[in-house]
Amino acid sequence: MKKMNIPISELLLERHGVDISKYDAGFLNKSIQKRKIETLCDSDNSYFDLVRQDKSESKHFISSLSVSYSEFFRNSLSFSVLEKIIIPSIMLDRVRIKRKEIRIWSAACAAGQETYSLAILLKEFSQAIGEKINFRIFATDQSELQIKEAKAGIYTESTLNNVTLRRHKNWFSKIGDNYKINEDLKENIDFSVFDLLSDYHTSPPSSIFGEFDLVICANLLFYYQPAFRSKIINKASHCLSSNGFILTSETEREFLLSAGFQEVYPQSAIFK
Ligand SMILES: C[S@@+](CC[C@H](N)C(=O)[O-])C[C@H]1O[C@@H](n2cnc3c(N)ncnc32)[C@H](O)[C@@H]1O
C-alpha cells in the first residue's frame, strides 16, 4: 500500500537511482504527457500508478528523459559564424604564433554529429590555407550508448539534411541506406563518457588540463532546473583558455546572457 502512494520522484530514486528533481518542470511534464498518451492512460494519476506498478514502465520513463536528437551543422547561424569568423581567427592565430594545438570540447556530443561537423570545418579551413594545423576535439556525453554510436560514425540520411552535396561527397561514404563518416576525421577526436553534473571532474579526464579554445554546450541546458544549468555553464566556462569561446544553442542564449556572458555577434549563440 505504501508503494501505491510514494511520490514518483522518490520511487524513481529508490528504484533506479535517478534523481528527476534536477530536470526542468516543463520538460518533465511534457515527458509525462507523452508517455501517458503512448501507454493509453487517461489521467496523470493513472499513469503514475502504472509507473509504480510496472518496473519496465518506470525504466521506459527514465529513458524518455534522455533526449539525444542531433543533426550535422545544427543551428545554422552559429555554424556559419564558426566557419566564417571564429575558426579562421583561432587557426590563423596559431599559424602566426606557430604554437600548440587548438583544443575544443564538444561537451554533450550525442552520436557525434556536432563533433564531426566541427572537425569538417577545421579540416576544410586547414586545407584552404594550405597549412597543417593541429587540433584535438574532446567529445563527451553522459550516455555510453551515444559515445558508442559516435565512435562508429554511421548516420541515416535525415541526420545529414544540412550537409552540402560537396561535403557529402568529401566526408562520407555510403553503406547500404546509411552514411559513414570518413575515418581520417576521427584522427583528431577523443570520445569519452562524461557527466557534466559530476562533482569529481572539472573537464574530461582525457583532456588533462582543459584550456579549451572553444567549448560547445548546446541543446541540453533547457532540460535542467536553473541551479543545474548554472552548474553546467560554470563547468564549461571555467576550463576555457583566456581568449576562449563558448557556444550554446540559439534557444539557450538567454541562459548565458543572464549569467553575464557577452555574445560575440548578435544572435550567434557564441559567447566570450
Ligand atoms: C539533444 S542532445 C544535443 C546534442 C548536440 N549537442 C546538439 O546540439 O545537437 C542532448 C545530449 O546531451 C546529453 N546530456 C544530457 N545531460 C548531460 C549531462 N549531464 N552530461 C553530459 N551529457 C549530457 C544527452 O545524453 C544527449 O546526448
Automatic annotation (TrEMBL):
One of its GO terms (biological process) is methylation. It is an enzyme of class 2 (transferase). Residues 8-272 form the CheR-type methyltransferase domain. This is MCP methyltransferase, CheR-type. Keywords: Methyltransferase, Transferase. Its EC number is 2.1.1.80. It comes from the Bacteria. Pfam families: CheR (PF01739). SMART domains: MeTrc. The keyword Methyltransferase applies. GO terms for molecular function: protein-glutamate O-methyltransferase activity.
